[in-house]
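Write out this protein's structure.
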Amino acid sequence: MFTLLKTDNKARRGSFETVHGTFQTPCFMNVGTAAAIKGGISSVDLRELKTQVELCNTYHLHLRPGDHVVKQMGGLHKFMNWDKPILTDSGGFQVFSLAQLRKIKEEGVYFASHIDGHRIFMGPEESMQIQSNLGSTIAMAFDECIENPSPYKYVAASIERTTRWLIRCKEEMERLNSLPDTINRHQLLFGINQGSTFDDLRIKHMEDIAALDLDGYAIGGLAVGEATEEMYRIIDVVEPYMPVHKPRYLMGVGTPSNIIEAVARGVDMFDCVMPSRNARHATVFTWSGIMHLNNKCYETDPRPVDEQCDCPTCRNFSRAYIRHLFKANEQLAGRLAVQHNLYFYNTLTEKIREAIDKDRFEQFRGKYSQLLATRI
């Protein structure tokens, strides 16, 4: 399934063949939480924006419209008219970040819906069942998302439980994939490394879950408030213990600079709400740095958002027009900005792949890692 094609120092160039098509790594996955990108972007738009993989959320789709509804509609791919790979996260992060009241037990987590407060239970089997009903290409294992910082003793107990949950996830997925009415009987499973910011616990947990020979491995519990350098340090600690010939996914990351730096440390896959969320507030990413389109200086600027970009927004509209749309609170403003940012992120990983192919990744990193973090 995953083929490591080339390396440039620790930077990796790969190809991942799935039942819903092959995608190239490093890869950015566009976040469509409720089976839609916020900002009025449809699955049809995503094809023009170079999207390889869509990410959808188990927790949100379980609540609305309900995973059984999605299954009845033929699964997520048919429901949202997307024929390329879809990754669904397990719902674990949302359980721990959105639920006001929750109780963790060995069997799973009892919590209240953030929508109407009704009581819900989710454990490894339930998460796998929901993701099987959704029919995603890649399902993420159900884990406990640990806050940073957390007490060492608590983290040690938590990762042991997460490993036990992972074993249950694997067994339940194998059972579900054997059923005749399962939408995607080739659904893949990724495990998630946890351990807060404790090196020894991160390493131990990675060793434990690597022994289960899963389809891929993620680093979770980062980009949740710790310093950027601390995040990079944890990646450096964990990476040597990650299986070489399995894809590596850094969850919830991040800025263009974060992606470049994580690729330099051996990561293959990324997701983040940042490009769409920032775009809806008039902040866009360009090859010269970060731009805020509400600024007065763009009021009569006839240039595209980024003169080096050929996205649908930059091909057709000026900075002045988009600034006007934001000032007038027109919904089109967010749509045009989101289109640009998603295209930018997908082009960024495309250029990273090209740089690795040509043994020029370090030059690319040296030119763009800091530049793309600069505010214009």
